[in-house]
């Protein structure tokens, strides 16, 4: 099944595809050329129904530009990574969410259940 999906995706040019930026969705989205004179900034993901910025391929950010959004996101990501290091959090190897060990053994069950 995954092989068929990968084969279908491989025939779509890279410039015309991207994936939903939400970790719990990640559906393949197609970005075709808009009609002449038309600028598409946002679109709904047909799978999770959330709004995606078509220009920077990130979650929708209505009040700020793509550049400003990316700058704020990078700053926020750096703060989270620093905090996680200080707290000795680890990332789940499947979903990449941070996990804090409070007690018990080192075995971990992913709460997101990614495949």
From TrEMBL:
<feature type="domain" description="RING-type">
    <location>
        <begin position="1"/>
        <end position="115"/>
    </location>
</feature>
<dbReference type="InterPro" id="IPR044066">
    <property type="entry name" value="TRIAD_supradom"/>
</dbReference>
<protein>
    <recommendedName>
        <fullName>RBR-type E3 ubiquitin transferase</fullName>
        <ecNumber>2.3.2.31</ecNumber>
    </recommendedName>
</protein>
<dbReference type="InterPro" id="IPR002867">
    <property type="entry name" value="IBR_dom"/>
</dbReference>
<dbReference type="GO" id="GO:0061630">
    <property type="term" value="F:ubiquitin protein ligase activity"/>
</dbReference>
<keyword id="KW-0479">Metal-binding</keyword>
<keyword id="KW-0833">Ubl conjugation pathway</keyword>
<dbReference type="GO" id="GO:0008270">
    <property type="term" value="F:zinc ion binding"/>
</dbReference>
<dbReference type="InterPro" id="IPR031127">
    <property type="entry name" value="E3_UB_ligase_RBR"/>
</dbReference>
<dbReference type="GO" id="GO:0016567">
    <property type="term" value="P:protein ubiquitination"/>
</dbReference>
<comment type="pathway">
    <text>Protein modification; protein ubiquitination.</text>
</comment>
<keyword id="KW-0863">Zinc-finger</keyword>
<dbReference type="Pfam" id="PF01485">
    <property type="entry name" value="IBR"/>
</dbReference>
<keyword id="KW-0808">Transferase</keyword>
<keyword id="KW-0677">Repeat</keyword>
<keyword id="KW-0862">Zinc</keyword>
């Amino acid at each position: 099944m995954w092989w068929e999906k990968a084969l279908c995706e491989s025939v779509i040019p890279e410039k015309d595809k991207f994936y939903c930026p939400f970790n719990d969705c990640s559906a393949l989205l197609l970005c075709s050329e808009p009609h002449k004179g038309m600028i598409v900034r946002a679109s709904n993901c047909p799978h999770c129904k959330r709004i995606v910025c078509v220009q920077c391929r990130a979650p929708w950010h209505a009040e700020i530009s793509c550049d400003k959004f990316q700058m704020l996101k990078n700053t926020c990501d750096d703060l989270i990574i620093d905090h996680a290091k200080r707290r000795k959090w680890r990332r789940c190897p499947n979903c990449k969410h941070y996990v804090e060990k409070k007690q018990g053994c080192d075995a971990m069950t992913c709460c997101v259940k990614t495949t």
